[in-house]
Amino acid sequence: MLKNSKLITCILPKGSARALSEKLWLDKKLNSVNDQDARRITTLTESTHKAIAMENEVLTVIVAEEDADEIFEFIYYEAKVYEPNGSIIYMTNLVESNLFTLPHLPRES
Amino acid sequence: MMEFHEITVLTDVSLITCIVQHGMADKIIEAAMEVGAQGATTYHGRGCGVRERLGLLGLAIEVDKEIITIIVSNDQRDRIFERMYIAGKLDTPGMGLIYITNLEKVATYIPADVTERLDKQKNKKEKHAKK
Questions:
Q1: A59 in Cβ contact with A35 (< 8 Å)
Q2: CB atoms < 10 A from the CB of B7, how many?
Q3: What is the mean pLDDT of residues B20-36?
Q4: Inter-chain CB proximity A40 and B42 less than 8 Å
C-alpha cells in the first residue's frame, strides 16, 4: 500500500487525454492513469461573461509523494496547461492507496 | 520542444464534489455560479446502496448519477457549498451527496496581466518585509 500518496487530476480539452496517458505510461512508467469524459461549464472572462458548455476529458493519476511534484510538472507542460485551452490541473492528498500492478502477461506480437 | 514557464500555483483552494441524480446537475451548477463559482465539470456515474435500502421508495431514485466538481477558493467555499446543498435539496433522503476536499495546489492558464499584478504585489510585500 502507498501511504500519503497524491492524486493528480487534470481537466483537458477533448481528445487530449489518451495521448497524455500513453506518455505517462511510456516515459514515467505510471500504470495508475485513468481518463474519463466530462462536460464543463465555465464563464468567459473577457467580454460577455456568459457561461459556455464544452466537452472535456479528465485524467487522474495516483503517484507516490516523492514523485508528485515531478509528475505534476510533467503533466503541466505536456498538456500545455499554461495556454488558454481550458486546462486545469490540481493535486490532492490521499491518506492511503493501493499499488496498481499489472499481471505478467506475454507481450502480444 | 517543450516551452518552460514558471508555474504559478494557486493554494487556499478546495474541491467541492456533488453527486446527484441524473438531470439535477444543471440547476445546482447554476446556483453555484450565482454565488461566485467560475465553472464546473460534470461527469457520469452510477450509484448503489440507497435504492436498495429504501425498498419500494428506492424506485424513485435514479441509478444514473451526475458528479459535479467545482474548484473554489477557500473564502468562497462555505457559501458555494451551502448554495449547492440547498439547490440540490440534499437534506432529502436519496437526493445526493456533497463533500469538500482540500487541494494542495492548482495550476491553470493565468492571463499575463494577472501574473504581472501578482508579481507586483509579491515584490511590494517583500520590500515591506525587508524594511
A1: yes
A2: 16
A3: 93
A4: yes
- Looking at the partner chain, which of B15, B41, B44 has a beta carbon nearest the beta carbon of A56? B41
Q: What residues does B16 pair with on adjacent strands?
A: B70, B100
Task: Report how far residue B15's alpha carbon sits from residue B5's, in angstroms, rounded to the nearest whole number.
Answer: 25
Which amino acid belongs to residue B119? D
CA B50 to chain centroid, in Å, comes to 24
Q: Is the ipTM of this complex over 0.90?
A: no
* Confidence band, pLDDT 50/70/90 cuts, at residue A84: confident
Average the pLDDT over A80-95 and give the result. 90
Residue B42 reports pLDDT greater than 90: yes
Q: Which residues pair with A53 in a beta bridge?
A: A41
Chain B residues close to A83, C-beta within 8 Å? 109
Mutate to test the interface with B, among A5, A34, A82 (most CBs of B within 10 A): A82
The answer to whether B42 contacts A39, with C-beta atoms less than 8 Å apart, is yes
DSSP label at B8?
Answer: P
Q: According to the model, what pLDDT value does residue A73 have?
A: 95
Size of interface A-B (CB pairs under 8 A): 80
Q: What is the pLDDT of residues B46-104, one digit of tens each?
A: 887 766 666 777 776 678 899 999 999 999 999 999 999 999 999 988 888 999 999 99
Q: Parallel, antiparallel, or unpaired for β B64-73 and B13-21?
A: antiparallel
Q: How far out from the chain centre does Cα A54 lie?
A: 18
Whole-prediction pTM: 0.81
Contact A41 B29 (CB under 8 A): yes
Distances (CA, A) of B30 to A28, B36, B107: 39, 10, 24
